[in-house]
Design goal:
Distance between the termini of chain A: 71 Å
Structural class of chain B: alpha+beta
Radius of gyration of chain A: 20 Å
Number of helices of chain A: 5
Helix content of chain B: 40-55%
Largest interface: A-B, 20 and 19 residues
Oligomer: heterodimer
């Protein structure tokens, strides 16, 4: 009986631990950043003035969101970071 | 028993076939991915930043191919979804190529116009500044500058500093370009003259010519004739300033001779000014008895030491 309770305790802690990890990994804040910068770039006319950078940012943002849905958070972060980079370039070029 | 063996063989064969089919598909997708990446590199050469439609399609194709690379190479995902991504990227690239080919530059694009600023003449061995800043572009596009300096050397940049080693006339050519157009080359010539000497010594006047009386700085006609020649030389050398130096012999005190030499130098300076030389370029100094050129113990030596020297000193830039 004692062994059973110890086993249940270890199992519970493990489940809680992995759940926390999954929750942490579920966050990709770069996606929100990319959306914000893209919005500013659009307002500055980047769709025409910086067509390549703007559309590149949009495409990478879409890829990031898709990867997040597939629970591939590493890939989501990678694409989101690229989206932020391109969005910033688009905004700079449109000023 | 044989039946059992045969049925198992059939299952093994089926599994092996399916494995081969998957391997074949994987190889096909990887090959297609590589081909599409090569196509994208080629398409990049057609890019025109004044073609927003083409730029948009190119950017989407590029991002999609990167996504496909992640799926196929990193994730090992060779399913229909990956093949679909590649097909979509190919369609985007085809549309981008069409858009770039059909795009014409907007009418607002103009060719830049070059302009050269440089001195009409300079001296061999001196650094010359050759300036293209006056070049213009009606669209305010950033410009590149390519120079042919006329002596076999070329340079790049808005302002160039160059040294011509030999005398002669050189034709300097400038070509300015923006991202779309090359401007028409413009040219200007520069004459390089022989290097000027630092100091030129003009006619000197001394006792025999001037016959300075005691405590006097009055010039006689012979002195004036020599000084008139100096005036001509001064006016034909605008690159120089004038230094007039008065000297005395050693008779009298040092303080007295210093004052006397200054008075005589000043007299010569005043003569030059009367003859039209700008006073601001003339410096009159007295050196008293400090720089004799002959022996002050003899009469002839003292006569030689009583002199006023006029020198031209090259103005340093």
């Amino acid at each position: 009986m004692r062994k059973f309770f110890v086993l249940m305790l270890v199992l519970s802690v493990t489940v809680v631990f992995f759940s926390a990890c999954v929750q942490l990994n579920a966050d990709v804040p770069e996606i929100k950043t990319a959306e914000d910068v893209l919005s500013k770039a659009w307002e500055a006319g980047a769709e025409v003035k910086a067509a390549y950078e703007y559309n590149s940012a949009k495409a990478y943002l879409e890829a990031a969101k898709h990867e997040k849905e597939e629970n591939d958070y590493d890939a989501a972060r990678k694409f989101a970071a690229k989206a932020v980079e391109q969005a910033n370039k688009a905004l700079e070029k449109s000023k | 028993m044989i039946d059992r063996l045969l049925s198992r063989l059939w299952i093994i064969a089926l599994v092996v076939s399916v494995a081969f089919i998957f391997a074949g598909c994987a190889a096909q997708l990887t090959g297609q991915l590589d081909a599409d990446k090569a196509k994208l590199s080629e398409l990049a050469k057609l890019r025109k930043d004044y073609c927003p439609e083409g730029e948009s399609l190119f950017a989407q194709a590029e991002a999609l191919l990167e996504n496909a690379t992640h799926e196929i190479v990193e994730e090992g995902n060779h399913k229909a979804k990956s093949a679909e991504m590649l097909a979509k990227a190919e369609k985007l690239m085809a549309d981008a190529e069409k858009a770039y080919n059909e795009c014409k530059p907007p009418k607002r694009y103009h060719a830049p116009v070059g302009a050269i600023s440089l001195p009409a003449k300079a001296y061999a061995g001196d650094e010359v500044t050759i300036d293209g800043s006056g070049s213009t572009d009606a669209d305010n596009d950033p410009l590149t500058y390519e120079w042919d300096l006329g002596d076999g050397t070329t340079a790049k940049g808005k302002v160039v500093k160059h040294t011509y080693e030999k005398e002669g006339t050189y034709n300097v050519t400038l070509k300015v370009s923006d991202i779309l157009y090359d401007g028409k080359p413009v040219a200007k010539s520069i004459t390089i003259e022989k290097r000027l000497p630092e100091v030129i010594v003009l006619n000197e006047i001394n006792y025999h010519d001037v016959n300075f009386a005691f405590n006097s700085a009055k010039l006689n006609n012979k002195a004036k004739a020599l000084l008139d020649e100096n005036v001509e030389a001064i006016k034909s050398h605008p690159e120089y300033k004038v230094v007039v130096i008065g000297h005395t012999d050693s008779i009298g005190s040092e303080k007295y001779n210093q004052k006397l030499s200054e008075k005589r130098a000043e007299a010569v300076k005043n003569y030059y000014v009367e003859k039209g030389v700008d006073a601001s370029i003339i410096e009159a100094i007295g050196k008293g008895e400090s720089e004799p050129v002959a022996d002050n113990k003899t009469r002839e030596g003292r006569a030689k030491n009583r002199r006023v020297v006029t020198e031209l000193h090259l103005i340093k830039k």
